[in-house]
Amino acid sequence: MLMHHYLGVIIVAVFVTTATNADINVVCAKDSVKITWRISAELVPYAARLFLGSCMPSQLKVLPTGEGEALFNYKFADCKFKKLIKGKHIFHHNELTYRPQAKPKPASFVYPIECVSKRPEVWVPPFLNPGSGVSGGRGGLHFHMALLNEDLTGIAKTNVIPLGSFMPLWAAVEQKSHQPLLLLMEECVAATTPELQPGSQVYPIISNKGCLMESVRGNSMFLPRYHSSAIILYLQSFKYGLGEEVYIHCKLVAWDPEVLDESKKACHYVKENGSWELLDDPFQSSLCSCCDSTCTSRSKRGAEWESHSWSHNSVLGPLIITETSDTKAHNSSIVSVLDLFCLM
């Protein structure tokens, strides 16, 4: 047993020494990555302890010299890649590791992997004219909210939504002389009235300072941003107010994009992982851990910025959620863009 441990220490030491000048070749494709990792002959028997994220080598070649080539050929959807969108680029992050011992023991060698691609040109919702959705202005800023069609190619032409289908809610803040701002949905509720009263019955959608509770109950999520000043809530329709007029009330907040904390964030629940994820930086998803309890600000800089933030209450509606069989009966409810608006 002692000899086995001693041998393991030698192998780790040899690997760390040779890995310092590791021969690693990374080729990034549109939705995948191909990595060739050349290892020493001493490490060939231990190739099963090499990982790309959670994936073992897809192939191992033993060269005539006795050295080895560990090949990793995987899609970004595999191996627990982290996806991050910034501006016009998409970043996929992961790590190559050598783990002589199983988790939770730390890896003895870590090599970061990053693939960067240009974000596809997609339709960017234009700012609406005053008659079709401007929700208001604060401090020289103009807030907007609207319902998009299913393809995200324009403003919806109907307010009738079949139960269980998705209604993409788009919100944006128009800024001119301000520094770039991050738009957040701090709180959203559904109600059957365009105005909320102290005793109004509401259906919570986003609460606890940016936690999308509908992502826990259903399949709602935040879509990747095309710009920091806009956000799309991909909201799955629900039974609340079924067949009635429903209004979505949201508190929109324009915030410093460099200051994210527990009180200023956009989090949705990822069922595949069983955890909350931060829209704007999955690596900081720990800020979302409070979504199951109470979220409060812990950032000193965030507290200082609070007095300089801008917020506005927007109301979108009316929307009519129907059973699929009832959709045709509501054809008379089809509205033009000018009818489906954000109330001041």
TrEMBL record:
Region forming the signal peptide: 1-22
Record keywords, A-Z: Disulfide bond, Signal
InterPro entries: ZP-C (IPR055355), ZP-C_dom (IPR042235), ZP_dom (IPR001507)
Residue stretches making up the ZP domain: 27-274
Alphabetical GO biological process terms: binding of sperm to zona pellucida; egg coat formation; positive regulation of acrosome reaction
Pfam family, one: Zona_pellucida
Gene Ontology CC terms: extracellular matrix
One term of GO molecular function: acrosin binding
SMART domains assigned: ZP
Protein name: Zona pellucida glycoprotein 3f, tandem duplicate 2
Species this protein is from: Seriola lalandi dorsalis
